[in-house]
Write a sequence for this structure.
């Protein structure tokens, strides 16, 4: 389902107004370290991705695929995560699932008008039922080892490329696209500001391709996703397959 003008234009305004990520507090320019050797060409991708962004080599990485079953409103959503094309983004999500970070969190932003757009959740502050709903969308995962928010770089693999590009948006068509049922990371306007917030694409959103990191898709239970209401909670999220593909230094 493609967004069409003028709905497309309205959705575009929504993106810039709310930045699809909410993580707008404490963002520092020093957190953004684009790969200097990377370009938007599918023929030229940096070969030093593991060293190109500070701290990237310490992040969890999914080397292969994994399956997560998320339960919302008593019904399962099966998500296939693609660590082949988005190893760090998928690895971060699997790691947070295994840590129980998503259990009990709220979907704080669901946009269906004027056309289906996104269902967004993953703010850890939402685990507290007393936390003001109006402030949800501003938090990320706080690593207990460092006491600071874990941030992951924007990771997008151009179609036909050998490796992803990190720290910058691209204009080429990516391997993982915003098809209906895609799962992607929310972030602020800073490319490397994603942490724990994610969103499901409720329609084909090709205008987001190259700007936000898709890392998997819903394989079963999209009807459950399609019925998520703002304020609904994730009852549980479990890795059911591929846990052995997660590589972490912890």
């Amino acid at each position: 389902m493609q967004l069409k003008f003028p709905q497309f234009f309205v959705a575009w305004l929504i993106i810039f107004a709310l930045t699809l990520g909410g993580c707008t507090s404490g963002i520092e320019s020093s957190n953004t370290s684009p790969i200097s050797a990377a370009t938007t060409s599918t023929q030229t991708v940096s070969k030093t991705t593991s060293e190109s962004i500070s701290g990237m080599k310490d992040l969890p990485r999914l080397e292969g695929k994994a399956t997560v079953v998320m339960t919302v409103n008593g019904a399962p959503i099966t998500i296939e995560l693609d660590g082949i094309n988005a190893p760090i983004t998928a690895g971060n999500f699997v790691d947070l699932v295994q840590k129980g970070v998503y259990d009990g969190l709220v979907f704080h932003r669901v946009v269906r008008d004027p056309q289906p757009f996104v269902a967004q959740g993953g703010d850890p502050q939402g685990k507290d039922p007393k936390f003001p709903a109006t402030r949800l969308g501003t938090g990320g995962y706080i690593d207990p080892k460092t006491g600071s928010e874990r941030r992951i770089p924007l990771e997008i693999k151009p179609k036909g490329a050998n490796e992803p590009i990190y720290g910058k948006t691209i204009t080429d068509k990516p391997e993982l696209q915003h098809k209906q049922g895609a799962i992607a990371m929310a972030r602020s306007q800073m490319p490397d500001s994603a942490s724990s917030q994610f969103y499901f694409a409720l329609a084909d959103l090709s205008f987001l391709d190259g700007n936000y990191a898709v890392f998997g898709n819903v394989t079963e239970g999209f009807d459950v996703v399609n019925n998520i209401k703002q304020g609904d909670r994730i009852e549980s999220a479990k890795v059911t397959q591929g846990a052995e593909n997660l590589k972490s230094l912890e």
The chain has a mean pLDDT of 84.
